Fold this sequence. Notes:
The complex is a heterodimer of chains A (393) and B (383). In chain A, 58% of the residues lie in helices and 10% in strands. By secondary structure, chain A is of the alpha+beta class. In chain A, the strands form 2 sheets. Chain A has a 4-stranded antiparallel beta sheet, with no helix packed on it. Chain A has a 4-stranded antiparallel beta sheet with strand order 4-3-7-8, with no helix packed on it. In chain A, β7 and β8 (127-132) form a beta hairpin. In chain A, α2 crosses α8 (288-295), α4 (176-207) packs antiparallel against α5 (214-233) and α4 packs across α11 (371-387). The model of chain A has no long low-confidence stretch (mean pLDDT 84). With 383 residues, chain B is of the alpha+beta class. In chain B, the strands form 4 sheets. A 6-stranded mixed beta sheet of chain B has the order 12-11-14-19-16-17, with helices on one face. In chain B, strands 1-5-10-9-7 form a 5-stranded mixed beta sheet, with no helix packed on it. In chain B, strands 2, 3, 4, 6 and 8 form a 5-stranded mixed beta sheet that branches. The site of copper (II) ion has 6 residues of chain B, from loops. Copper (II) ion binds at residues 120, 151, 196, 198, 204, 209 of chain B.
Amino acid sequence: MSTPAPTGTASSLWGLAILPILLLGAVLAYLVATGGGLRSLQGPPVEQVKIGRVTLPERGLIQVQLVNDGPQAITIPQVMVDDAFWSFTAEPPGPIPRLGSATLTIPYPWVEGEAHRVALLSNLGTVFEAEIPVAALTPRLDSSLFARFGLVGLYVGVVPVVLGMLWFPWMRRLSGRAMNFILALTVGLLVYLAIGTWLDAQEFAAELPAFWQGAPAVALIALIAVGALLAVGGKRREDEAPLGLSYRIAVGIGLHNLGEGLAIGAAFALGEAALGTFLILGFTLHNITEGVGIVAPLVKRSPGLKQFALLALVAGGPAILGTWIGGFAFNPVLATIFLALGLGAILQVVWEVGRLVVRNTGRLGLPVANWSNLGGFTVGVGLMYFTAFLVKF
Amino acid sequence: MSAWLRSLRSRRDVLRTGLGSAAALVGSVALGQSATHPAGHTPATPTPPVKGGAHAGHGNNLMVGKVDHARNGFDPMEVLTDWDTGQVSRLPSGQVLREYTMTALEKDIEIAPGVFFPAWTYNGRVPGPTLRCTEGDRLRITFNNHTSHPHTIHFHGVHPAEMDGVPGAGPGEIPPGGRFVYEFDAEPFGCHLYHCHATSLKRHIHKGMYGAFIVDPKGGRPPAREFVMVQNAFDTNFDGGNEVYAVNTVGFEFARRPIPIKKGELVRIYLVNILEFDLINSFHLHANFFNYYDTGTTLEPTLRIVDTIMQAQGQRGILEFTYKYPGNFMFHPHISEFTELGWMGSFQVVEPVNYAAALREAGVDAGWDRRATGGSTAGGRRA
Ligand SMILES: [Cu+2]
């Protein structure tokens, strides 16, 4: 039995809505003013600082950016570099409020190519450390470095995707059964990328100040991205599906490659140029399968060279962008968000390509879990897994 | 991706992965970037020192700001000379009786500008009072524990077992609110120390419960300008390693305010090492050599004409030297890590005529000068 809701005037309706808020305000005011009888529960002060970027803007100078993500204001009265107290200036000076940030400038004669350690000593004696793995001037935005970073992105992102696409003519001559194998393979490599992107997103998230709540944020952003992409996908016309699917795979892989670019750019910015370049070789090889995955849904069409070029750009281009951002303006917040979006995009295409595989398998009169599908999936995961040996240490 | 980034965070790891210079070179050439320079081949240009920075010429290796000694309740410069010779009277037997009061107090002390350490102290200071007496004196030390932990006073020297200030001997640990009177004869003469011996020992020592204990020989030592230097350090984040190193507690204090001495006068330093966590400390004097009396239990030097001595935990000794030239001369441990972490200072050697001005510059008065030159409790040496 439901009783009809009492109707009222507009003003009484607003009053009912606002009443809890007013009472909440009163409770908060009481807590702030009196401590709510909980004063004795207050423990010793907690100091927490997240060191963000450590840069070497010029010879003999170190800059440290930090965020106070602890529950109360913090003071950093002393700084040590390589186990030595060192002079410094803080901007802004004085205590750093909760969620506030500061930049410390330290006149320290760092040595090119060597490792250094910076430690911040709080007024209560807590030590916060940051490492400079290989000291090198932090790259400054100039046209030649900009171009070189762009080239790195090109090698890592666009080139392997284009090379992978060159298998397209061969793939068109394959039987329906073989093609289904390739699609299953695509699912495999996308699943690998999804896991990799998740782990990378979590690593960047771990670098964030605590209040960003990085770990759950990654999951939530990815979920919302999946939902949004599925909602958009629901409106599509059936006949343009294959090309659309290729584009969505390209977008997912593109966001993933953006993350790769970020990491490589950041590596250069941290002075690990030689290693970064060694890794570029590995990434190029590792990413070649991505091109196969992107064109796999298109074997029954001939979308034309222009579409292929566009697909390659969508999938590979973000690596260039990522390298620029990572090298010149690394920001773990953006990195985490981009990777979480990439994760969502990849999961959404795993879903779509997976459905394609299921449909094709049905047409062939086979159960979904057959040796061909499983084999394709395994080869896809295996290719990514073993080529990743080149870039993992 | 960031996984490999992190795995490369340490240059040692990079080398460990065995990626030879070949790979590195390929990479650098491919990008047109210069290869990493071998260590030390690229001269870094240090920025000029900050104005008003370290007196003693250590560039930017300094602490920013100043310590509020008034708030601390003690000043490392004053600690150099403020001997506590106790309340003196005579026993019926004619023996000199010295009575001291030591109170354990918990106190936050500023050990570096703006950096506070939750110390356990004797009489609210770190190091505790420099107890000074003459060999053969009767010592009566009343110990009050006004803290929330049990403590003791363990004196180095010769005394009965129940006066040893260790758990299980005599009264053992003195509980919070407790009181005990340690009583024994001062022997042998030398530069000793006392410290809390409650468990856990490391914590009771590094929290600040220690001080110098000087027993003068009956005949005294030759007249000299005397200072006590207690080598100590603080583990501010309680991770079993020290962050701030010093003599007399405050890092770089004597770099900010060099200690004034006169050219040509004999200087005697009672040096005590009560460092926790690091096995060895040392003392190195610039532009000079000194005679060293190990533990101070002899009247003849045990080491002659040396410029560096080392002391393990709990070791101490007496240094004697004279400066030939005026100027600013550093002293520090020849353990460069400790030097750069605060245990560094200097002597300001001046012509006798300029001494009053030097005292003013160091922020000390004639009383400090008098205590430095009239320190011995032994008779027959005050000129
Ligand atoms: Cu104790």
